[in-house]
Specification:
CATH architecture of the largest domain: Alpha-Beta Complex
CATH topology of the largest domain: Spore Coat Polysaccharide Biosynthesis Protein SpsA, Chain A
Shape: globular
Mean pLDDT: 92
Low-confidence stretches: none
CATH superfamily of the largest domain: Spore Coat Polysaccharide Biosynthesis Protein SpsA, Chain A
Structural class: alpha/beta
Order of helices and strands: HEHEHEHEHEHEHHEHHEHHHHHHH
Distance between the termini: 30 Å
């Protein structure tokens, strides 16, 4: 079923009664009863402290929580003269659909600026409101991405996949392209709302990278803003992140198809304007099950290795094979090899006419190997030192980009759909 609006009738009616607002704060939620009150209170205080003269609306876009998230949101007080909407969005379940409802509301209320923050944040302060909204309201930026102090093992999809590819492809050094907390202008929100992507992975976890990429490619004025430490319901990549990895990477590859005419001409990268200062705080440590990461990678090699051999170049496959022989605490996968893996998966995704999504699924164990390798290489580094390594690694992807272009243009040796029997999986 295709939904032509993500707003339920009672919400649409409430928006009609509100008529107009200056600022909209959107909070997508799902089973966040432990943290939602703190997030609402923080954004409410921030609006009161920094934008008291503006008319704000706080919108909780819920995915049908089965705990008391909506009840808690309903009873959490806000500062005087602030409207609050608590709604269950319509459409496919996912963060992207929640964002769609927020974009629609921003457009209907004709707000000057819109901001979205995650509902599981434990470190959000009232100052986040100013940090994200200030570039839009006072400096005419259309899209504001966050910069956090995060533990070196938090944000593994960002640190090992999305930042590298996004920077090399589109030439902007946006450090947290899937950060979760953004601000955007009225025009940018309207653009997002009008795109026909809401039945795709964008409606799930793919929305953040889609927003960031779309803002860059469509020439919206972009910047970044320091928010300080991000403490949220962190997830062990060995246990929780496979679905997110698949949805984000699939969206990345689909965007590569869509925007090839833009990214194939980009060489190197450039920084954006950055607001605020890095507080240099050391974040709380995050626990990762290294043995489970290694076990999942080796399990993947055992069952998918015959397919990987058909998909990857000989040198890359040999590196994967060697990595599979190592114990968890010695497992390494060179950054250059990981860059080649991502480029070869992306180009294969481009050439194949069928089984594209199965291809991304088959790469998930390789993501586990990369995370294990990153942990082994950074276990004796502090957050700042690990961040320096990430920046050094990013240059490898920029330097190897000609290889990606070569693979993209070159037909596969065995045709557009290699002779791979996915029943083997």
């Amino acid at each position: 079923m295709k939904y032509y609006t993500s707003l339920r009738p009672y919400v649409a009616k409430r928006i009609e009664l509100i008529e107009k607002a200056d600022v909209l704060i959107g909070i997508p939620s799902y089973n966040n009863m432990e943290t939602i009150a703190h997030v609402i209170e923080s954004v409410s205080s921030g609006l009161h402290e920094h934008y008291k003269d503006l008319r704000p609306v706080i919108m909780i876009a819920d995915g049908g929580s089965t705990d008391d998230t909506r009840d808690v949101a309903d009873v959490t007080p806000t500062q005087p003269w602030q409207e609050k909407l608590v709604t269950i969005y319509r459409g496919p379940a996912g963060k992207g659909t929640a964002f769609r409802s927020i974009f629609e509301t921003a457009d209907r209320l004709s707000v000057k600026a819109c901001m979205v923050v995650d509902s599981d944040l434990r470190s959000i302060t009232s100052d986040w409101v100013k940090s994200l909204l200030e570039p839009v309201i006072n400096h005419d930026y259309d899209f504001v991405a966050p910069i956090y102090c995060r533990h070196k093992y938090d944000g593994t999809i960002t640190n090992n996949v999305v930042y590298y590819l996004s920077r090399a492809l589109y030439g902007k050094r946006i450090r947290q392209p899937i950060g979760g907390d953004f601000a955007f202008s009225k025009d940018c929100a309207k653009f997002y709302m009008e795109q026909d992507v809401w039945e795709t992975d964008v409606a799930k976890f793919g929305v953040d990278i889609w927003m960031t990429t779309s803002a860059i490619v469509n020439n919206f004025k972009t910047c970044q803003s320091h928010l300080g430490v991000k403490i949220h319901d962190a997830k062990d990549p060995a246990v929780h992140l496979a679905p997110m990895y698949r949805q984000v990477v699939t969206t990345l590859f689909v965007l590569m198809e869509q925007y090839y005419d833009y990214w194939h001409k980009i060489e190197g990268s450039e920084p954006t304007a950055i607001f605020g200062e890095d507080p240099g705080t050391e974040p709380e440590p995050i626990s990762v099950d290294m043995k489970l990461l290694a076990r999942k990678f080796k399990f993947g090699f055992k069952y998918f290795g015959v397919l990987w051999k058909k998909i990857f170049s000989e040198d890359v496959y040999n590196e994967i094979q060697e990595a599979a022989k190592k114990p968890a605490d010695k497992l390494t996968l060179a950054n250059e090899t990981w860059a080649q893996i991502l480029f070869e998966i992306a180009s294969t995704f481009h050439h194949w006419q069928h089984n594209k999504y199965k291809l991304v699924e088959l790469s998930t164990p390789l993501y586990y190997a990369r995370i294990a390798s990153f942990i082994n290489k950074t276990k004796n580094l502090n957050t700042m030192e690990a961040e320096k390594l990430v920046e050094e690694n990013a240059l490898v992807y920029e330097n190897l980009k000609p290889r990606l272009l070569e693979l993209w243009k070159k037909p596969l040796d065995n045709g557009s759909d290699p002779n791979i029997d996915f029943d083997e999986v």
